[in-house]
């Protein structure tokens, strides 16, 4: 089963970005950083989600991110599916922080249960088939709207969403040009998908 070992965010200042992610989220090797000045504007076509166990943990992570320099795109609120909010890191990456629970069951903590990479694509069905052809197995599929892949024990989960819908969830306009500034490190090999998202083998991308 294909697993995603990490994602590499391409940022203008890896040192500053590293300081932010360490301070805000306490992330380890699942999210790596590389220096890049590749032109990019607007929505970069993806979000990263931090899935946690309770609303208090959402608030703890959102507050820590804002204190470290993030911008609030959507304040944390209750919804039909749970509780969550959206922030944008100083490097431009959009982070959704969410819990399926609406009530706290213990003290708040910055504990992360899952990291999910959501790719905003133009044609969900076509991209789904592309990834199936590259060895990924589908875990859940909702027509042309959403696909979740089975990525085994890998630390990063993967899902596809329509680009416009993902931008709406993130609280931004769907317009954007240039580089995604993202590389996906896995055991699936090196390739670029129909929407320009680059995949690399785990050994190709160095960490900070």
Structural commentary:
The protein has 208 residues and is an alpha/beta fold. The protein is built from 4 helices and 15 strands. The chain has helices spanning 14-24, 55-67, 124-133, 163-170; strands at residues 4-11, 31-35, 40-42, 46-52, 71-78, 83-88, 94-99, 114-121, 137-142, 146-150, 156-162, 176-178, 182-186, 191-192, 198-201. It has an 8-stranded mixed sheet with strand order 5-6-7-4-8-11-10-9. Strands 2-1-13-15-14 form a 5-stranded mixed sheet. It has a two-stranded antiparallel ribbon with strand order 3-12. Strand 10 and strand 11 form a beta hairpin. The model has no long low-confidence stretch (mean pLDDT 94).
Largest sheet: 8 strands, mixed
In round numbers, the mean pLDDT is 94
Rg over CA atoms, rounded to whole Å, is 16 Å
> What is the strand content?
35-45%
Give the termini separation: 27 Å
Instruction: Characterize the overall form.
Output: globular
Helix fraction by DSSP (H/I, runs of at least 4): 10-25%
Look at the helices and sheets and give the structural class.
alpha/beta
The helix count comes to: 4
- The count of β-strands is 15
Low-confidence regions:
none
SSE run = EHEEEHEEEEHEEEHEEEE
What is the topology, as strand order, of the major beta sheet? 5-6-7-4-8-11-10-9
């Amino acid at each position: 089963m294909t697993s995603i070992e990490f994602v590499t965010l391409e940022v203008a200042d890896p040192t500053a970005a590293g300081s932010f992610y360490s301070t805000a989220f306490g992330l380890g090797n699942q999210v790596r950083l590389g220096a890049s000045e590749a032109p990019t504007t607007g929505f970069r076509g993806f979000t990263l989600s931090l899935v946690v166990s309770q609303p208090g943990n959402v608030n703890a992570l959102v507050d820590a991110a804002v204190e470290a320099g993030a911008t609030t795109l959507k304040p944390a609120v209750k919804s039909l599916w749970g509780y969550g909010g959206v922030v944008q890191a100083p490097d431009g990456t959009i982070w959704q922080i969410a819990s399926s629970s609406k009530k706290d069951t213990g003290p708040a903590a910055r504990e992360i249960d899952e990291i999910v990479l959501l790719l905003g694509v133009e044609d969900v069905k076509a991209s789904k088939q592309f990834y199936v052809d590259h060895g990924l197995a589908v875990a859940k599929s909702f027509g042309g709207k959403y696909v979740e892949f089975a990525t085994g024990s890998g630390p990063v989960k993967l899902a596809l969403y329509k680009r416009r819908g993902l931008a709406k969830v993130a609280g931004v306009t769907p317009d954007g040009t240039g580089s995604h500034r993202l590389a996906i490190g896995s055991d699936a090999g090196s390739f670029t998908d129909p929407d320009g998202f680059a995949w690399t083998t785990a050994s190709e991308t160095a960490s900070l």
